[in-house]
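Pipeline run #58 for the internal structure catalog. This entry was flagged by the ingest filter as a single-chain record with no existing model, so it goes straight to prediction. Upstream metadata was stripped on purpose; only the residue string is passed forward. Reviewer on rotation: M.T. Logging verbosity set to normal.
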Amino acid sequence: MTRSAEIRSEILLIAVLLAVDILFYVVVIPYGIADPEGFGLDEGLPPSFSAKVAAGLLALVMIVRLITLWFRPQAAQAAGAVLADDGEDGGEPVRVSLPNLIGIAAALVFAYLAVPVLGFYLSGFLLLAGLMRVMGETRWLVLLWQPATVVFLIWGLFDRIFSINLPAGVLFGG
């Protein structure tokens, strides 16, 4: 089985990035983020937790991609061909659709205006419901229960399991 030059270069690139990620996990996090001695989960999560989770998830994604490239190069190449730049755009500017612009604007409003004023949970619900509406969802029951479910799961994960308080917003005393 021969691998194309693109597949081989992607394997090499991911291997280098994986090595850097492991170096980050093994060297940078332990020496750069000091965890207090005897810090347990009953006091909350240690300061290095988020960095370790991010490095671990990145490593997992890269390992999955490496396995796909190594054992199924045809499938990996076919999937990548959809995203590849064919260079035939003639230098034309990229056009952004109106729903994409609305999504970008909604994310900015969410991050810089809504969360500080309304809090994360109410803002998150409004953002999800609004984006679902922009993407074409018209059933009101779906527009209510799906964002509410996501916000409830985020609350359960962060507030109850990780003991991380997300912003409450100025209107709710945050």
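catalog note: Residues 5-83 form one domain.
catalog note: The chain has two domains: 5-83, 98-172.
status: ready for reviewer M.T.
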